[in-house]
Predict the structure.
Amino acid sequence: MKDEIRAQVIIGNDAEEFVDSELGKTILGMAKQDEAAAVIAFDEVDPTDLKAVARIQQELRVARRFEQYLIELINRGREALTTQES
């Protein structure tokens, strides 16, 4: 259990450092641009074109998921740190 908590703390710290790095900011910015483009495409897509709607929905999910994963890793690391310090 201690090893698992320690691993979560380390991964959370790594994720936080990544988000704060130039590379992390760039990739998150690219994901935000992809998300914005998908929202625009979704607004403009023919609602009867089910394949296009599904493709755009998937693009939107992927763009949003990247940031969500990082946030989840950071939060887990912080929670693990709190547990470790208790």
User: Anything to note?
Assistant: The first helix runs from residue 2 to 20. The chain has a mean pLDDT of 95.
